[in-house]
Amino acid sequence: SNPPDHRDYSLSLRESTEKKFLLKFRSEGLTVLAMAEGHENTSAARRRLAVLSGHLRSGNVTLSAENCASGDPRRADRGSAPSSGDQRAFPVKRQEELKWNGWGYSDSGFRMNEDGQIEFYGKRYQIGGQELPHLRTYLEEHLGLDESVYRPPRELPDQADIAPPVLNKAFIADVSQSVKDLLQSADVMDRVVHSHGHTIEEMYAMCYGKLERYVDFVVWPTNHDEVVQIVECANKHNVCIIPCGGATNVSGALMCPPGEKRMIVSVDMTKMNRVLWVDKENLTVHAEAGIIGQDLEHELGKLGFCTGHEPDSMELSSLGGWIATRASGMKKNVYGNIEDLVVRIRMVTAKGVMEKSCMAPRVSAGPDIHHMMMGSEGMFGIVTEATLRIRPVPPLRKYGSILFPDFTTGVGFMREIARQRCAPASIRLVDNEQFQLGHAMKGPTGSIFTAWLDAMKKLYVTKFKGYDPQTLTGCTLLFEGTKEEVAAQEKRVYNIASQFRGMAGGEENGRRGYLLTFLIAYIRDFGMQYLFVGDSFETSVPWPRVLSLCRNVKDCLRRECSKLNLIHPPLVSCRVTQTYDSGACVYFYMAINSKGLPDPIGAADTLETAARDEILASGGSVSHHHGIGKLRKRWVKETLSHEGVEAIRALKEHFDPKNIFGCNNLLPSDTGH
Length: 673
Fold this sequence. Notes:
Layout: E1 8-14, E2 20-26, H1 42-57, E3 63-64, E4 109-112, E5 118-121, E6 130-131, H2 133-143, H3 169-178, E7 183-185, H4 188-193, H5 200-208, E8 217-220, H6 224-237, E9 240-244, E10 264-268, E11 275-279, E12 284-288, H7 293-302, E13 305-306, H8 319-325, H9 332-335, H10 338-341, E14 342-349, E15 352-354, H11 370-373, E16 381-389, E17 391-392, E18 396-404, H12 407-420, E19 426-430, H13 432-440, H14 448-464, E20 473-481, H15 483-498, E21 503-504, H16 507-516, H17 520-528, E22 532-541, H18 546-562, E23 571-580, E24 583-593, H19 600-617, H20 636-655
């Protein structure tokens, strides 16, 4: 981020002998300052410095670390806020701003007000402070909302349900000695918030029950070297480690194995939240893995760049979590999935540090070790730093929407968009159930004229266009680029839509539909207070099977629900969220009214199990971007084959023979760890 005529380059090199050097290069007249810890094998380091200096003399260096907004990552004020310090998604003690037993921020969410209307409280979102007069009616009709059964979640954990921590005193003493001023805690609330993610099972336990096992201890490292020391101490004293980033996972990955007898330490990465450097010429950023998505985009935005990676959880999820789960974002059509963005990963394993030696755009050197790290879900080690591709912030963002007479027609449109490779940054098709939910979340009509205009629009759609309100679907769009590029994209997309009886639905509907993504999880927490039990799950599937898979899964869930003798039919909906040349990602939502059920969570698990079996039988994948965790381990062998599972187990045995990273994710229980 320095001007081109004056650039500094700061980096650290860890030789095989673990000797450290701090190097400082100036683009004109190379100066090398080497500070060695110890005296062995320094000649090897000098040879490496000579090679580096030759590269640097050959041209300008445009990479900046020392003068980047975040400063030197080894500076004295360890653990400071990201870069300039004016932006952080949530504090180190996350329970100070985030719900400990629900999704998102404590000052935001849905509630029933004194007038019996559902409103969204808080000021963080555009919908904040509004009554939603149609939402209550929607929930009454689709799930049998009954205000009289309201069951508030507990305000604080019941400490009687939480066993005293298992403390390995030798580990605590050793890690405290090795990492000076390490923030650490065995406080009950710190233990609780680091023991769960956001599956319905975990959230229900937080609100109304308890977990079988909680982490015993939490530590907050502030840089890569501290993580190395923590892992070395854990390996030495046989302590179990579970890495923790934004804790937004919905696969049970953070849940502690109930049978784990060792001390379980949660390594909270969120103090490692700095952008270490930005290379404007090469369009790359190097950041610590604990940085939260919205903070990363905020910092890059100051320099006019972005990653473009926007998963539904980007407000709260971390860079390391994206890598560990092979995440995907809403704008992957332009920016790619996480595997397309990653240039280099640094991971600390029980055996040492794994990383590539260069940041070339492509390397042919055997199997790609990045693909051992991506999707490893905390089984092999802790991701500490990563280099990502970035792009200039687009000068224009424009929302749009399209109405289709039915889901089948909408899927045909999505297929044609993928075939012609003209998808905008985001394009998502919702079925009728989700379309109606989006309409129900509109705020109150602002004036008589607005109400009349809405009525006329509805009349036009239903009478003149002939759309049936019970089958019509909606597609939300996000275009990015220059004014000319966006205009060209719009023209092409809307022309294709017209071939499928599509009708433009307006920019505001597109904006609201896009932002609704960030509110879905808040709805689930609200519903749980009225005995609704629901969750989401996703898959990827070839184009010829998209419609049949959606139909089969919905039918399967309705059949299974009929066996439960529910007081009200279930709500089952889906949307197509990401498109590829050879298929698409389909996202399902399911909710039931659990009134009268003796085991609501057991029922929810039964339903998701049946749905996942149906997904695989219909040609879908076990997961598109949520990962495996503990929730989907039963399908891993079917997905990867016996030999594939054994290959992963062999990697686990190599990297972690003592099972220090004992989260027990990914691998089926009959294959060792």
